[in-house]
Amino acid sequence: MSAPSAVRPTRIRLRPWQSEALERFADTSGPDFLAVATPGAGKTTFALTAAVQDLADNPGRRLVVVAPTQHLKHQWSRAALRLGLHLDPDWSARDGELPGDMHGIVTTYQQVATSSRVLAGLARGAFVVFDEIHHAGDDRAWGESVLEAFGGAARRLSLSGTPFRSDTSAIPFVDYHLDEARADYEYGYGQALADRGVVRPVYFPRINGFMEWVAPDGEVLSATFDDELAREQANQRLRTALSLEGQWLPAVLDQAQERLVELRRHHPEAGGLVIAMDQAHAQDIARVLRERHGVRAVVATSDDPDASDHIASFAASADPWIVAVRMVSEGVDIPRLRIAVFATTTTTELFFRQAVGRVVRWTPGLHGPGSRTQPAWFFLPDDPRLRRYSAELSESRRHSLRRRRDREELDSDRPDEIDAHDLGDDEQMSLFSVIGAVAIDGDDADGRGGAAGSGPGGLGVFDDDPDDPGDRHAPEGVELVLLPPPLPGGGHVVVPADGGSGAGGSG
Description:
Blueprint (H helix, E strand, L loop, with lengths): L9 E5 L1 H12 L4 E6 L5 H15 L5 E5 L2 H12 L5 E2 L15 E5 H14 L4 E4 L9 H11 L4 E6 L15 E2 L2 E2 L3 E3 L1 H7 L6 E2 L2 E2 L1 E6 L5 E5 L6 H12 L5 H17 L6 E5 L3 H15 L3 E4 L6 H10 L4 E4 L12 E6 L6 H8 L19 E6 L2 H27 L15 H5 L2 E7 L2 H4 L6 E3 L5 E3 L15 E5 L25
Parallel strand pairs: 2-7, 2-10, 3-5, 3-6, 4-5, 6-7, 11-19, 12-19, 15-17, 15-18, 16-17, 18-19
Antiparallel strand pairs: 1-23, 8-9, 13-14, 13-20, 21-22
Helix pairs in contact: 1-2, 4-5, 6-12, 8-9
């Protein structure tokens, strides 16, 4: 590609937090920077803007992005292209050197674990972005590989959608205080709500139920979500509720479908997500939606080689439902999702917050009832662990809206992270069996002192109270003029005469 005679500026309208974080990043003298920003706030745009500036100041410097999944590699590549950055999402260690017409690559943490030595040469002196850096701690070998591959990078920008801890081994390039990752810049859900037009308010209908099951030792047990149980029995209770052998989950799907139909009257593209326990569970949920409501749900599971294509197709369509296990739980950008059903036994706080992040993304340009607030609903079992997590987010929402309303009028301890997949070995699980599960109504469910409402079908719905949202509109943001970075070899990115895509802050 021949270099143009003049370099045209690209204008990017940043959200206020992105501009502030960018200034702080530029003022940081060390190589490492951790930005924690709530899902949907625009971490991708912030990181790519920082990369564009850095590459413009350092001709010939390469860019490496490390993402959690294969699907997100292509999502990052497309987002980078909107800012004039050419990143190869299909690079592998067999390719060796970077093609001359590319600024860099997008890889995954899993690839880093098998290609750390090759990446170490490619990333020496590079600008590196770690998307959802906590994944480097998923496996000890991954953390060691990340350290080996990127220890020689010039700048390392780590991103996360939620604060995280290091309960086992520290993640490379992250500073800690009392086992908690110390962020250089943090932008929380409450702040994003207060800024208006950044994220949606999320409401959490928590559905109680009566579950009955046979424990692995043969004992017949029954309980509601109000009953205090030991960890193992609480896990069994949750799995019983989510089993399609009972009626709890079908009843909740009915309620979620009714809410989605109502939303689609004014937002026809609105979609719903069900997060399932496993691949078989996902297929069964899709079958229930088809048989009870006559809707075809897209199923995206990791065993399907075309899963990424299914997700991309769903994102671009107006199809009502997608059912996934983990593939859509983190990072995947489908702004039209307004409904979610949490039907998985994975109950760590980090996973829960990332899952909620799938429905918080703001959609500009909506009109009609609810368009000023774009509320989303996240249906979940009234399991005590999930109840605690949702309560924290709900309080952030209420506090943000109260604070804004007041401004307009004038002018527990950290819960333990428990994964309910930990139910013992396969032999013990084979002895576990579901007898039945039913959702129970608000009068039966209201035993905790909180307000119980009546949802569709008479089910108990908690935290479904309407907040007074005040006026919500898109933030003005800050205009920033960037020079397109040079291509390797001395050329420059050719930017259209209209100033480029004018990427917004929604990445």
